[in-house]
Amino acid sequence: MRLRELTLPGKLLPAFLAIAGICPGAVPASDTVPAGRYLDLSVRVDAPEQLNPLRMIGDLQFSDRVSVGEAVRTALAGTGYRLAGSAHPVVQALLDSRVALPHMRFENKRIDSVIGAIVGTGRGYDVQVDHAARLIRVVPSLRQGMMRQAGEEGDSPEPAPVHLPDQDQ
Question: Which of 87, 88, 111, 98 is nearest to 162 (CA)?
């Protein structure tokens, strides 16, 4: 009679799960919640865009009348982050200037990459992210300042890859 109980459809699955090690005790209890008699679900937040909203993927399109600052603010909408004001005249001039033609449309791009492209990360400006205050700050690039001091301002540097400080996490 015992063998017959194990082969019944209702009893076979629990026996298989216990043998395979796929049972509620196989995963730390703090990371799961019961979702039925024989199933636990993970409750950990592990999606990159949930851990860092700047990694969300989105489609953005800007008109030709939008400034760089407005474009960055639009890209940040829904992330919980905001653009910090700048007292630096060079940065303020950038934020007040119009978005370049190639930067008017982004499809399926990460928000941090879009902001880096619009601002010109690695080409005169850097983006600093303050996760605690949820602020994005645009600052003049030290690399660009050193090139001007060396007298190479007529030469255009090679485009550097877009890199925000939080991408290494």
Answer: 111
Under 8 Å CB-to-CB from 16, ≥6 apart: which residues?
A: none
Cα-Cα-Cα-Cα torsion 94, 97, 101, 107, nearest 10 degrees, comes to: 60
What does each C-alpha distance from 31 to 43, 44, 169 come to in angstroms? 5, 6, 21
Residue 169 is predicted with a pLDDT of 45
* Helix (H), strand (E) at residue 108: strand 105-110
36: CB partners within 8 A, 6+ apart: none
DSSP 48-103: HHHH-GGG-EEEEE--TT-BHHHHHHHHHTTTT-EEPP---HHHHHHHHSBPPGGG
Residue 51 identity:
L
pTM for this prediction = 0.62
Domain positions in the chain: 2-42, 48-168
- Give me the mean pLDDT over the 157-168 stretch: 50
